[in-house]
Design a protein that fits this description.
Layout (H helix, E strand, L loop, with lengths): L9 H4 L13 H4 L6 E7 L4 E5 L5 E5 L2 E7 L13 E8 L2 E8 L38 E5 L11 E2 L11 E2 L12 E2 L3 H18 L19 E3 L23 E3 L9 H19 L5 E3 L6 E4 L24 E7 L8 E6 L3 E4 L7 E10 L2 E2 L6 E4 L12 E5 L4 E4 L12 E6 L9 E6 L3 E4 L7 E10 L2 E2 L6 E4 L12 E5 L4 E4 L13 E8 L7 E6 L3 E4 L7 E9 L11 E4 L12 E3 L7 E4 L11 E10 L7 E6 L3 E4 L7 E10 L2 E2 L6 E4 L12 E2 L8 E4 L13 E7 L6 E7 L3 E4 L7 E10 L2 E2 L6 E4 L12 E6 L2 E5 L12 E7 L6 E6 L3 E5 L6 E10 L2 E2 L6 E4 L11 E3 L35 E5 L9 E7 L6 E3 L4 E4 L7 E10 L2 E5 L3 E4 L10 E6 L4 E5 L13 E7 L5 E7 L3 E4 L7 E10 L2 E5 L3 E4 L12 E6 ...
Parallel strand pairs: 5-8
Antiparallel strand pairs: 1-4, 2-3, 5-6, 6-7, 9-10, 11-12, 13-14, 14-17, 15-16, 15-18, 18-19, 18-20, 21-22, 22-25, 23-24, 23-26, 26-27, 26-28, 29-30, 30-33, 31-32, 31-34, 34-35, 36-37, 37-40, 38-39, 38-41, 41-42, 41-43, 44-45, 45-48, 46-47, 46-49, 49-50, 49-51, 52-53, 53-56, 54-55, 54-57, 57-58, ...
Helix pairs in contact: 3-4
Pfam family, one: fn3
Keywords: Golgi apparatus, Membrane, Repeat, Transmembrane, Transmembrane helix
InterPro entries: E3_ligase_FN3/SPRY (IPR050617), FN3_dom (IPR003961), FN3_sf (IPR036116), Ig-like_fold (IPR013783)
């Protein structure tokens, strides 16, 4: 009943048998203390509840209300749940309520209860006024059953659910749907709150339209007051289609409480605007009703007009709100009664359908805009026309005989015109579907006579008044009675039991199928003395008589009857119940001694045989203690039995039961028997595992098939030697395998096995013969060696004992060391020739034999030494570096002074005409190398001694030579080495000419050659510049490809000696002749700026710092002066350090500078650079004070110059050093703090 949920259909909501109470029931009935219980259905505000009355009409009740409904059987009536919803039961304070909720929960923002769900979309044919789902989630259907029984409510219980209220304040004109339903949109918060507060005031003054007051029994309103419009039912106005009568929709327009305070001006402005809009909506004329029919009428209305009492100006008068929606509501209880909404939309006309004929209706219209609802208009009354009656109900049979039927019926709704006649038709019993009139008149009953017995007749009924004839009712089939049935056949026994008998009988053949025949079954117990007593009375053709005695006789007969009378009983038949099964026999016992394979058991008959003799006893036997499977071992009438064929040492369980005519008795108690154990049976012969070895075999076996009733705990293995019948035990233990060792290779042995348990050892198994495998050969004797040449040795050996298998292979190992020999021969031969050996070298060899059984051990190692031979070939030849080229002490290399006998020191060889070579000494093959032969190809070979270095002289520069070397010893000459290609270098370059291009008193710039001053480092021609020091030795100044070099840090007026040498890839050329260059004298150092001291307006004193003598040469000074922008002129020249300047002009600037002059003894004077200039500013003669100020200013300027120039060079250097020290300390601190840490 909430908006946007499928409405509850009236036909399925409650059972039609529940009457509506005119007033609330007494408390005893509500609480369930009376014979009947009352169900209170709570209808929420804005919802509609539709029920069916006793006369078949529907009544719609709008909320808020509580509808009391009486439950005749004390249970909660069935409530229809719409599609997509489920019902749940909640309990609060002992009151249970039915809660209808959507089946799939969805989440809604705002922190509300998770029980709020978005409803399904409305039907297309319902023109309901539905707000936006996010704005107005529907409250669930809530029906309160106060007096419902506990057993009728099987759903789960949940806590009470309080639905949250959602409100909307404004309807957007752009959000209208195709059915004229506006959607609610948000406005800004402040305007929304003010509008809601004003709406609340209007509703309090005018009341809630269309809804009625609060019902007495309804729950109190929520803290947020709501304003609900009446529900709508189906209409036909050209917009929506026709729908069911019970489907309703409603619109809730609510306002929240005003929680904040607004300004008075804004509140008055909004009050005025809202009051004007409400007045406009409330001033609507009453509707007009036209085209009134029996079940529909057309309602027309006009837009609301502005009241004439308003005297607002044209500018202030607001226009008609667009769009406006209207709600048409009707009432059948008077103009002041409850109204029910029949239409809601924007049209100005509507067709009201589903009306009742000949009924007074009151209709009114109500205008609404956004969330504002105007007052209803004046109600208009109209009465629908009368029409033909409703279709009556089918007639019912009140009584009947074999030849007549008495029919009755109820009057249907006359629809405003009294029913005058009824038309009853029948098919005359033909069953063709063609009906003829059998009665026409005002009576509500009629008796049809002259009918056939046991026949079917079809009837239907229609009602007629002045407006016409109603439709016919449903067709009903009625039957006439039959004659008294004939006696039936006697009953037959279908099934018999110990305490029951199942009997069946047949229907009398002469009775028609349409006749309702009933049967009486009578029974007489033997020797009871009561005669036949009825056991069954009904229409079934079989019955089971129970609670009888076992093995007893009973007599039965059956009689049939119908509405006409009772037949004679059938013939008497006699049946006997079955005997009961006997009780269980006594527990069996053992007779005699239990054997390993049998035992004898006996038992006693049962105490109760069940009414029949015991026909046989059955003995069952189960092996083991679980009793999982039982085997039948005896079946007969004897009371004892011998159980044989048992297993020794096994547990058995046995039980007995007996059988008689009554069935099988229960099982007796179980007897447990344990047979004694015996030694185990013979084992299978042991089998060989794997391939037999030469001296051992591995055997494996399995346990015996018969363990004698006790687990096998030990096995014993015996071996029988070849050519002997004596046996010996080689293994005893619990394992199932063993390894027998100490056997001879290639022999056949026999093995037998026996098993043992706690009863002893069993018999031996059959014999298993195993032949051991052949063994590996024995160790070979030491091989013999014979040297055929220095590089070839013949090794021979003898075959060892084969140890049961012929030797198929010999393996010879050969190596230079005893621990690193490798296989060099593998085959069946008894000798092998080793080739490619080194002369005069020790070798070791050994041999082993191999057969199918394996590899024999190696023989002892034999030492073999090859004879000496010529030397081996030289492997590598290297070219000596230039620094290693020296003259060796040989007759052809050294120059000996014949007179004095003094050997001159070795001289360096030129790489352009000499090649210095060295080589690796080859192996001498046992004989010391005496000399080497160097072959140059074209020239005669050079013979040298046992050296590994030699310088070949007298070669052509820049020429290639092919060189190979051959070693010689006492046994002959070895092979030549590989040919190596070597080349002499070109001749070294000649030294360039050296000259001085620039000089000063401390530097000399030297230049040589014709190339550029700077040359790439990759140039082949480079220079080596040297200068002679004080000791007469030449030291290197520069070595590189450049052609200039600047010599610095020289002394003044000093001569220096130089020489130069050129070199390239060919080597170093000779040094040039000696060149001598002299540095000039040095000029005096620059002086600091002179100091000025004004003496008067026309004179000043200039002073400067003196310089010391330079190497004994005196120093003089030259002072220059410049007035204004003229040139400097010499003012003084002499040895004094101060000068008095006179005849100065008062208004002119003077600049002074000074330089030092060196008075050389053997040369002209050398003037140093001038000092910085110093300026003498003129004096101003305005006033005495100003002059004094000027003088003081001049002195101040002079003093400032003096102060500015007072720092010496040492002080400046110290200052720079301190600055660098502070910066270094700061950098070290930053590195220590940020980087290291």
């Amino acid at each position: 009943m909430a908006d946007r949920t499928p409405p509850l259909e009236s036909g399925q909501l409650l059972s039609p048998e529940l009457p509506i109470l005119a007033s609330p029931p007494p408390s005893a009935m509500v609480n369930g203390e009376g014979p009947q219980q009352v169900i209170l259905v709570q209808v929420n505000p804005g919802e509609a509840f539709t029920i069916r009355r006793e006369d078949g009409q529907y009544q719609c009740i709008t909320g808020p209300a509580q509808v009391p409904m009486m439950s005749p059987n004390g249970s909660v009536p069935p409530i229809y749940v719409p599609p997509g919803y489920v019902s749940q039961i909640i309990e609060e304070n002992g009151v249970r309520r039915v809660l209808v909720l959507p089946q799939q929960p969805d989440f809604h923002p705002g922190g509300h209860s998770p029980l709020h769900h978005p409803p399904p979309p409305p039907h297309a044919h319902l023109p309901a006024f539905i707000p936006h789902p996010a704005m107005m989630p529907p409250p669930p259907h809530l029906y309160t059953g106060i007096a419902g029984g506990v057993g009728d409510l099987s759903s789960q219980y949940i806590s009470q659910y309080h639905p949250a209220q959602f409100f909307s304040d404004q309807v957007s004109t752009d959000s209208l749907s195709q059915h004229g339903r506006p959607s609610f949109v948000h406005r800004d918060d402040r305007a929304s709150k003010a509008h809601e507060r004003l709406q609340k005031k209007v509703k309090e003054r005018q009341g809630v339209g269309g809804g009625g007051g609060q019902v007495k029994d309804s729950p109190p309103p929520s803290p947020r007051k709501s304003c609900n419009s009446p529900p709508t039912v189906d209409i036909q106005n050209g917009i929506g289609g026709k729908a069911l009568d019970a489907e309703h929709r409603h619109v809730v327009a609510c306002s929240d409480k005003q929680t904040g305070k607004e300004k008075n001006g804004e509140l008055k402005e909004l009050d005025k605007e809202t009051q004007a809009l409400l007045a406009l909506l409330s001033n609507i004329a009453k509707p007009e009703v036209s085209d009134i029919q029996a079940r529909e009428a057309v309602v027309n209305w006009s837009d609301p007009t502005r009241p004439e009492s308003e005297n607002t100006t044209t500018e202030e008068e607001p226009g008609l709100p667009d769009p406006l929606s209207y709600e048409i509501s009707i009432s059948i209880t008077g103009k002041d009664g409850k109204y029910q909404s029949k239409y809601s939309g924007e049209g100005l006309s509507a067709t009201l359908e589903g009306l009742r004929p000949a009924t007074d209706y009151h209709v009114r219209v109500q205008a609404m805009c956004s969330s504002l609802l105007g007052s209803p208009s004046e109600a208009v009354s109209f009465t629908t026309l009368s029409c033909e009656p409703d279709p009556p109900g089918p007639p019912r049979k009140s009584s009947g005989t074999k030849n007549s039927l008495t029919l009755q019926w109820k009057a249907p709704c006359d629809n405003g015109s009294k029913i005058k006649n009824y038309n009853l038709q029948w098919d005359e019993g033909k069953g063709t579907g063609v009906f003829e009139q059998c009665y026409y008149g005002p009576q509500k009953q009629y008796r049809v006579t002259k009918l056939s017995p046991a026949s079917r007749y079809s009837f239907r009924l229609a009602a007629k008044n002045d407006m016409g004839v109603s439709e016919f009712s449903e067709v009903v089939d009625l039957f006439t009675s039959c004659s008294v049935p004939l006696p039936p056949f006697p009953p037959e026994l279908e099934m018999a039991g110990v305490t029951w008998l199942c009997l069946k009988w047949q229907r009398p053949s002469s009775s028609p199928k349409e006749d309702d025949i009933y049967y009486i079954l009578e029974m007489e117990e033997e020797d009871s003395g009561y005669g036949f007593q009825p056991s069954y009375d009904g229409e079934e053709l079989s019955f089971t008589v129970r609670n009888l005695h076992r093995s007893s006789k009973y007599k039965f007969r059956v009689a049939a009857y119908n509405s006409e009378g009772k037949s004679n009983p059938s013939q008497v038949v006699e049946f006997i119940t079955k005997p009961d099964r006997p009780s269980c026999p006594c527990r069996p016992v053992i007779k005699g001694r239990v054997q390993p394979d049998s035992f004898k058991m006996a038992w006693e008959p049962p105490k109760e045989n069940g009414g029949a003799e015991i026909t046989k006893y059955v003995v069952e036997l189960s092996e083991g203690l679980t009793g999982a499977s039982w085997a039948l071992v005896y079946s007969g009438s004897a009371l004892e039995h011998v159980c044989d064929g048992l297993k020794p040492g096994c547990s058995y369980r046995t039980r007995v039961y007996c059988m008689s005519e009554g069935g099988q008795s229960p099982l007796s108690e179980t007897l447990q028997v344990q047979t004694p154990a015996v030694p185990p049976g013979p084992c299978q012969p042991p089998r060989l595992v794997g391939k037999p070895k030469a001296r051992e075999v591995q055997l494996r076996w399995g346990p015996p098939h018969i363990d004698g009733g006790s687990p096998v705990t030990c096995f014993s293995v015996e071996v029988i030697g070849p050519q002997s019948d004596e046996s010996r035990e080689v293994y005893q233990g619990p394992e199932l395998d063993c390894t027998v060792g100490g056997l001879s290779p290639g022999r056949t042995y026999g093995f037998r096995l026996k098993a043992a348990n706690k009863a002893g050892f069993g018999p031996l198994s059959e014999r298993c013969e195993v032949t051991t495998g052949p063994g590996a050969p024995e160790q070979c004797k030491a091989p013999s060696t014979t040297c055929k040449s220095p590089s070839c040795v013949v090794v021979s050996w003898e075959a060892p004992p084969c140890n049961g298998a012929p030797v198929t292979e010999f393996r010879l190992e050969w190596g230079a060391a005893e621990g690193s020999m490798q296989v060099c021969y593998s085959g069946a031969g008894l000798s092998h020739e080793m080739k490619g050996l080194l002369p005069a070298t020790n070798y070791f060899c050994r041999v082993q034999a191999v057969n199918v059984a394996g590899v024999g051990p190696y023989s002892e190692a034999v030492l073999c030494q090859t004879p000496c031979s010529v030397p081996a070939a030289v492997s590598n030849i290297y070219l000596l570096k230039e620094s290693e080229l020296q003259r060796y002490g040989s007759p052809m290399d050294a120059d000996e002074d014949e007179e004095g006998g003094v050997i001159h020191p070795p001289l360096a060889f030129s790489p352009s005409t000499c090649l210095g070579i060295c080589w690796d000494a080859p192996c001498d093959h046992g004989s010391e190398i005496t000399s080497y032969l160097i072959d140059l190809g074209e020239k005669q070979p050079i013979v040298v001694g046992p050296v590994t270095k030699y310088v070949i002289q007298n070669l052509q520069p820049d020429t290639s030579y092919r060189i190979r070397i051959q070693a010689q010893n006492s046994l002959g000459t070895g092979a030549f080495s590989h040919t190596f290609k070597l080349k002499t270098k070109p001749l070294p370059p000649q030294p360039p000419r050296l000259e001085c291009t620039a000089f000063s008193h401390q530097t000399l710039r030297l230049k040589w050659g014709d190339g550029p001053a700077k040359t790439a480092a990759s140039d082949t021609l480079q220079s080596h510049l040297q200068m002679e020091d004080k000791n007469g030795r030449f030291i290197s100044l520069y070595k590189g490809p450049c052609h200039t070099h600047k010599v610095q840090r020289l002394n003044e007026s000093t001569s220096y000696t130089f020489r130069i040498q050129a070199f390239n890839e060919a080597g170093e050329g000779p040094f040039s002749s000696v060149y001598t260059f002299t540095t000039p004298r040095s000029p005096p150092a620059p002086l600091k700026a002179p100091k000025l001291e004004r003496l008067d307006d026309n004179s000043c004193e200039v002073t400067w710092e003196p310089l010391s003598h330079m190497k004994g040469d005196p120093i003089s000074y030259s002072l220059q002066c410049m007035m204004g922008n003229t040139e400097f002129k010499q003012a003084y020249k002499g040895s004094a350090t101060s000068f008095l300047v006179q005849n100065l002009q008062a208004n002119s600037d003077y600049r002074f500078r000074v330089c030092a002059i060196r008075q050389c003894q053997d040369a002209t004077e050398l003037s140093g650079p001038y000092s910085p200039t110093v300026t003498l500013t003129p004096q101003r003669s305005e006033t005495v004070q100003s002059g004094g100020a000027a003088g003081s200013g001049s002195r101040t300027g002079t003093e400032s110059n003096r102060t500015r120039q007072s720092l010496t060079d040492e002080q400046c250097a110290f200052l720079l050093l301190m600055v660098f020290a502070v910066i270094a300390i700061l950098i070290a601190f930053v590195i220590q703090y940020f980087v290291i840490k």
